[in-house]
């Protein structure tokens, strides 16, 4: 896949024109720190026109959202900070309502399921509670978010008036992990078991592939991205790359998605990953 320029989110003139023709509205979950915050930063600094960026987090008024609030103050017309807890259906419904009242018939073009949690541990170390919390955040959260935002995604697909699929039309990108891959378990399990995380991200992958199949008639694109091993709170200090490099890659990949990548599992460089 061609690597587009992050500043215009496009790999060539054609895509750039498409992006420019449709000012996009984007929602990012877990936007207060790590990769989510970096996505908001890079998207707001991009040169293409953006209608609205909904930066969602669990506690918009708390100390963990200070950096996001500072960024939002610099771009008050673009960034809206909205409360969304992926494990709380009420907050998802409220958020969907708020977003709907802003985007109206134009709909929501791109939904990024980024919020996630990691509980480390082997099968024998993992409690029922660890598994439930991880599953609720990494699978039930994205599933409820997709369901509640579906009317806005459908509206965006309808409003676009262009054929095919793209992230500037109507798309859901969920941030998965290569640890979800069944094929790499043998090489990677001993060094990093995290069984609840692996199972939950594999569940997220299946959710995405099923949604891609079910909603292709609505021309809503669903893809999975692995951000690389990134130095964030979750990735730790020993990661391979920093958040700006990962996000630059992921935004470029998102910009280049078409119906060919519906249901695809790609890394931040656009390379297909094994299931
Ligand atoms: P961080 O731990 O740095 O950030 C996680 C984000 O998710 C925070 O904003 C956190 O908010 C939010 N979050 C957690 N639980 C919930 C919830 N219930 N509702 C709403 N938001 C929540 O992780 P990264 O930025 O590194 O990871 C982002 C995504 O990338 C995750 O899905 C992760 O699994 C994935 N990923 C990361 C890799 C890495 O190396 N970093 C590798 C592969 C995948 P709060 O501050 O409130 O806790």
UniProtKB/TrEMBL annotation:
Signal peptide span: none
Domain Ketoreductase as annotated: residue spans: 24-198
SMART domains assigned: PKS_KR
Recorded GO MF terms: oxidoreductase activity
Pfam families in UniProt: adh_short
CDD domains attached to this UniProt entry: carb_red_sniffer_like_SDR_c (cd05325)
GO cellular component, one term: cytoplasm
Similarity comment: family membership: Belongs to the short-chain dehydrogenases/reductases (SDR) family.
Name recorded for this polypeptide: Zgc:112146
Origin species: Cyclopterus lumpus (Lumpsucker)
Lineage, uppermost ranks: Eukaryota, Metazoa, Chordata, Craniata, Vertebrata
